[in-house]
Structure formats: C-alpha cells, structure tokens
Design a protein that fits this description.
heterodimer; A: alpha/beta; 8-stranded mixed beta sheet; B: alpha+beta; 6-stranded mixed beta sheet; 21 helices; 21 strands
Amino acid sequence: MTMRILRNSELVEDEWTLIEDGRADIEAGPGKVIVTLARWRVEREALLRGHAAVGVLVPNTADIEVVFAEIEDRPLIVLQFPTFTDGRALSQAVVLRKRLGFRGELRAVGDVIRDLVFWLGRCGFDSIVPRKDQSLEGCREALREITVAYQAAADAHTPVWVRRRSGVVASH
Amino acid sequence: MYRYDHIDRALVAQRVEQFRDQTRRYLAGELSEDEFRHLRLRNGLYQQRFAPMLRISVPYGLLESAQLRKMAHIVRKYDKGYGHFTTRQNIQLNWPKLEQVPDLLGELAEVQLHGIQACGNDTRNITSDYLAGAAADEHIDPRPYCELMRQYVTLNPEFYWLPRKFKFGFTGATVDRAATRTNDVAVHLVRRADGAIGYRFFVGGGLGRQPMLGQEMNPFVPESDLLRYACAILRTFNRFGRRDNIHKARIKIVLREWGYARFRAAIEEEYEKIKASAEGEELNLLPEDIERVRAHFPAPAYRPATEVSADIGGLAAADARFAAWIKRNVRTHKIPGYKIVFVSLKAPDHVPGDCTAEQFEALAEICDAYSFGELRSTYDQNLVLADVAERDLHEVWRRLDAVKLATPNIGLVTDIVSCPGLDFCGLANAGSIGVAQDIYRHFDTLDAQYEIGAIRITISGCMNGCGHHSVGHIGILGVDKHGEEWYQVTLGGSPGNDAAIGERIGRALARDEIADGVERLIRTYLELRFDEDETFIECYRRIGMAPFKERLYENEAEAAAA
C-alpha cells in the first residue's frame, strides 16, 4: 500500500513505511522504515539489522540540537505538524539545515495542507506528505507560489540586503 | 519614503495572487472556514460583526500623497467612504466585500500598500516615532532600521506560524513617541560614548490580557546585529511560546513563567549561536546595507529660515481660533522656520480615528503643497504634517479647518483613543465609540479642556486592548456582564518614557455612569492638584488612588451609611 508524496518538487511513490510505537517492526518488512525517536533510542541495532534503512520521527517539542547527535547519520528525519498553524518544526528544520548541516531527506508530516507547503519548502523540507484530502498537484504548485524573498531561509534565496550590495540587482 | 524596487514589487504582486487563489478556493469550498481564517488574517482580513475588516499596514506610520489619494479612491469604491486609523498607525476598512478583496489588494499594491501580516499569529506591522526625522530630541533616525526589520520579518517562512501575534516598536529619540515598551520587542536606537550606534532591546511587553511592559534584555547590541538579535528572540518564541492556550501564548508569558534570568540566558545563547554560524553571516548588516536604506529617507529640502519663518504671534492675535490651534496642535521643529503640525482626527461627533474620502484627498493636497508630500499616523489615532514652513501655517490651518481636521485638542481630554468596539468588532464585549462621544460631550468647551490640560483617556471594547486602555491616564475597558455593557476604570497608565500599566480603581461602572464617573475623577484632580502645572498623571502619582476612588464611589458610601 504505497502513497504518493512530494519529493524534490516531484510527485513520487513513497518508499518509507511508518511503524507506530507498539507495533512489531517486523510487520513492516525489510524495506525502509520510520520509527519514533523513543524507539530508535531503545532498538537502534535491531532496527538497523532488520531494515534497508531507518528514518526517525522527532517530536516538534524536542531540542533538535540536543537530539541531533543521535540521528545525524540518518538518511531521513521526519518532523511533525500537529496542526498547520503550529510552526515549531519550521525552526527545527532551519536549525537542522543551516546550523547542524543535515543533508539527508527532511520530511514534513501531519496536518500538512497545500497552504503550508510553500513555507515548508523555504525552511528546507525536501519531502512533504500532504494531508490525505489535499490535491497533490496543488501542493506541488504551491512550492512556487512566491518566487522572490526578502530573507534567506534554508533555501536558495540570498537576503535582499546582500543582493542589493554592489548593485547586483538592476532596477527594472 | 522607502521606494520599492522590482524585488519588493514582485513580492507584493505575487502575494496578491497567492491570496486571490486562496479566496477562490475558499469560495469554491476547497478550504475550510478555519483554514481560510488563518490565511486571510495573514493578509489583513478579519471577520467583524457585519462584514470583513481589512487592516492595511502603514509601515512605521509613514504615508505619502499618492497613497492618500489611493485611499480616497479605495474607501469610495470598496467601502462606505471612510477609513479608520488605529493605535498601531494602520488603516482599517470596515465594509469591504470578501470577493472584492483580492482586487482591492491589487490596487493597494500599486502604491506600496498591503495587508501582509496585518493580523494573525505572525510579526505585525512595525510601529515607530511619528516625528522621525523632524524632532529635536532625536539622536538616530529609526526609519532605516524599521525598514530593514520590515524586510527581514515579511514572509519570513520560519516565523510565519508563530504561537501568537508579535509586535516591534522602534524609537531613536529621547522621548518615546511609539509606546515602544507595550510591544513584544522594543528597539531603542542608542549611541555609545565612542560614537558607535547600537540597539537597546526590551522584550516581553504586550497589552491585552495581563498587560506588561517590555524588560531590558540587552543594553547594547551592535548596529550590525539588528537581525541576528531579532532572529534569536523570534526563534526562542517560536520554539517555546505556549500553543495550548491562546490567552497565554504571547512572549510575555514565556518571560513570566521562566523568570528573567532563564529567559535572557536563552535569548543570549541563541544569539551567540547565530553569530557563530553561516546564518549569522547572512544576517550581518554591513554599514553600506544600512546606508543604502538610509538614503531612502533623505532630509527634506528645507529652505533657509529667513525665507520661511513668519510672525505667528501676529497672525494668532488676529484670530482666536487660529491661536487655539497653534497653541494645541503645533509643535517645535528641529529646523528653524519650520513647525510640526498635528492633524486631529477627534472632531466633535466624529468617531476617533476615522477619516473620510474627502479628508484623505484634502490631506494629499495639503501635504503635497506644504509638507514635502508626506504624512504620518500616530498611535493616538491622529496624523502629523511633519515639516510645515511657518509662513504656511495659516493656510494649512484654513485648509484643515475646512475639512474638520483642525480641532485644537491634541493631548487634551477630548483627544480620546478608542478602538472600534462593539459597533464593528467581532471580539468586542462592549461599545467604545459611544462612550468616547459621551465623554467628549461632557468636556466639549475649550475652556474646560484647557483648564484640565494634558490627559490621556483610552477606551477598549474588550480585553485585547486595541484602544490601549492599560496605558491611559484614565483607562476604560468594556466588559460584558450578563449581556450588559459595563466599564472597568484604571488610573495611572502611561505609554511613554514613564510607561506604566494602569491600576484598577474599583467596581465597574454602568454605561450611563461612565461619563459622569470620568468627570468625578477629573474634578478630583482639579481640586487636589498642586498647581496648574501639575498634570493629571503627575497629580495621581503624587496623591495616589484613594482620593479618586473615594470621589468616584461617594454616592455608594453615602447609601451604605444611610
């Protein structure tokens, strides 16, 4: 049972299976799995032996800088949006990307509506799992809703106060 | 005036289209009521009692004539012919139609106006000194720094979904004319003994429930680090601000729950980490970055005093109404031969802060002809022509008077600050405009007003405190008691350098008691003041609450004794 998600601005089949706490991880098969941070701490070795890859789901209340030592080698870190208006994971993402230098896949899950997607993209999420009722095509379009930015986030933008130095920006 | 380049223009234009699509999806049923609410708030659109309210940001209270003309057009085309200036120096429209709002925003964008982050849990419009550039007590013009901060926080993705609204107030003068410490963050531009410019940061202010004044977090952040320090504060708030209870979600609650030492340590630690990282490099402001923005705010082309000064005393002697206006609405300018003119939006039988299409147009013409094309809005819901030549004062007065904008009451008892209250606002518990008008009529004669002198009466229709009741000398808060409108009175609040939160005097007053109650408080002051130079607030601070309380409730004491 696969589902489509947004990854690197494309709609792709999701390769990862979330194993909820309390469920035997073996049920998920030998493929790529996501487990909670709590489980990762306890079952790390067994999980690595049993699966092709292990990603970790981090609560949005965690101090990402403290937790990072335990997950920095993970190919996937998953951050949570309990509601689309709860922006804590946006700061976790920016710190992961810009301060801690995490280069693996960074995924947003939860109450991810189309109108959150643009902000996720700017904060360094390259993997987005929209809420089930959302239009995937709409979510993909949302990534490019606004193409200019005043400030840099965890994205390709350069702050305007830097761009305007030495007349890089010609006035149109 | 800050001038957009193609980046600013593209950003606002694309933002309008983003909102147009959101509105379309909402009207098509693709977005739920609650989802759309959060999106429209971030574009300034609030649901009021009868219609949506659109709040238009006026960055640091600075407007120019083209914007005023556009506002005249907008209020005629999309509203009922008037707009309303708020205590955050913004403009609100009370009657736009939802489906027309994207077009309205498109028209506003033509003159650098928008509703981006005017409401919602995000960083709001930045407020500042309405006399920036014109006041003699200014050591550093705050406008370039406000503009840099505006750019940093506008559509900043990390801080777009904060726990609660977040407000900045800036000043660079000795006198705080921006109520800065009522903001989540107050930035005071300072110059150190060695000449270096920096920022004195206060954090944790906020009106509304549990009003508090900001506390000093850092006495001197270097000029290069404005955005770095702001990032540290915003990130700390985004991570730790409470999201379980909307009434405890402001940053002031984090400060209160953690205590000052822990709170300050957290911000300083984040600031140090930012400085040490690549992010800190991006946020580092070079002197040229600041100079480039400063160049958007050149000093006006003032003319020599010999060409522009005038014998105001002579003109005033010939006309008592002009004389009254000069006395109350005109202030000293830093440049000889020029004056600062306050435009009163507190005419009799007028809603405080309202401005009609005709008034917008007249103001556009007046500021073009006599004040270098610019106008400022104040947090007292008045306007300012900052650079008027003395020789033009009489003509400016005549023209303002013709459109009822020359009431000589700045800073007096009828210069009442009031939110829209229950007449418009969906949050309000009680009316505030009617109360303002009752009090106004009580003290309408100019002689009575001059006798009372400087006093600040502020009225909010609910706990959210848009009418700044917590920082009024006499603050009035509307509350709902079993479906009736009642009013709690506080004394001793102040927004400026002597900032203080007012103290509650006693039981709430009924709607029909309030104007008489205010009169009792003022009579108490007139009887007990040391001399005519002692203002209401000075008198209150000297004699305390007791005499005012005794007088306000004396009938009850008599009734109880009988």
